[in-house]
Specification:
Layout lengths: L1 H22 L22 E6 L7 E4 L5 E4 L3 E4 L5 H13 L8 E7 L4 E6 L5 E4 L6 H7 L7 E8 L19 E5 L19 E6 L2 E6 L5 E4 L6 H7 L13 E6 L2 E5 L12 E4 L5
Parallel strand pairs: 6-10, 11-15
Antiparallel strand pairs: 1-2, 1-5, 3-4, 6-7, 8-9, 8-10, 11-12, 13-14, 13-15
Length: about 280
């Protein structure tokens, strides 16, 4: 009996929520998804326009290649280059000029088509991706399937326009719209907002740098280099020294300024990309 009463109360509550949403549909749009209102509209985007209390004004339109669309009482509206919020304001302003009193206008994006980036290199699903508003670079990498095992931490971005807010390793200029980002910098939460991708970006994730380990190790070969990698850690990647390995006489062959150097490092020394680490055979 109590369970039946509870079900009736719950049903009434749900119905009340539905009625409130119908009477004040703006409630559903008070907290739009992150960046939606800042999304810059472009050609081929499909937008949904509602003038609340005037169902006959409801339109779903596609932005033409010229960046415009037509709307009742306004005729042609140039939308390309405007944010969703700016377009809402423009339509309200136009409708207020003798047609409506304080119209409530909501614009939503039905289909995103105009803003795209290309992701190439060491991701599982390279290709073209549509961005929807403010999009963090990690979101795009995730959408592209994430990084492969061979991926490095450096991302190269080719940008058609001048970037507004980036924290690149190489400073961008209008003459040099190509820059690199170190994904390890994203560990600093204060810089996170500076890694937003833009329409037209080409994003390339290169292979990680490698080191080569040879001689008396259990698994000689090529291994991924990470920042801070030491000689001892590199040898551990290769399964450690064999029983005949002379760890104390480890050598590094390194190319510097075009010249080949042979170094005798400490096991705690850091290696650099393309180092060849050799563990020689013990004399005994």
């Amino acid at each position: 009996m109590r369970y039946d009463i509870f079900k009736k109360i719950l049903l009434i509550f749900i119905c009340l929520l539905g009625i409130l949403s119908f009477l004040n549909p703006c409630i559903a749009y008070e907290n739009p998804p992150n960046g939606v209102k800042e999304y810059i509209i472009g050609p081929e985007d499909v937008i949904d326009i509602q003038v609340w209390g005037n169902d006959d004004m409801h339109r779903i339109v596609e932005i033409s290649r010229e960046g415009a669309f037509t709307f009742p009482f306004i005729d042609k509206v140039h939308a390309s280059g405007l944010s969703v919020a700016e377009l809402e304001k423009l339509i309200r302003q136009k409708l207020s000029e003798g047609y409506f009193t304080n119209p409530q206008v909501t614009v939503t994006i039905s289909k995103y088509k105009s803003q795209k980036v290309v992701v190439l290199g060491e991701v599982f699903k390279p290709g073209s991706y549509i961005i929807k508003g403010r999009t963090h670079i990690l979101e795009i990498i995730s959408e592209a399937g994430g990084l492969t095992e061979k991926a490095g931490r450096i991302v190269t971005i080719m940008r058609n326009g001048f970037p507004q807010a980036v924290s690149p390793i190489n400073q961008v200029t209008q003459a040099n719209p190509t820059f690199t980002l170190d994904l390890d910098q994203l560990a600093d939460g204060n810089t996170e907002a500076k890694f937003l991708v833009e329409d037209g970006d080409s994003i390339y994730i290169a292979k990680a740098h490698r080191v080569f380990i040879t001689g008396e190790v259990n698994r000689p070969g090529e291994y991924k280099w990470d920042k801070g990698l030491t000689v001892n850690q590199a040898i551990s990647l290769a399964g450690g020294p064999t029983k005949r390995g002379a760890l104390g006489r480890t050598k590094i062959n390194r190319i510097k300024n075009g010249a080949e150097l042979q170094l005798k490092p400490k096991l705690s020394d850091q290696v650099i990309p393309d180092d060849i680490i050799e563990v020689p055979q013990s004399y005994f």
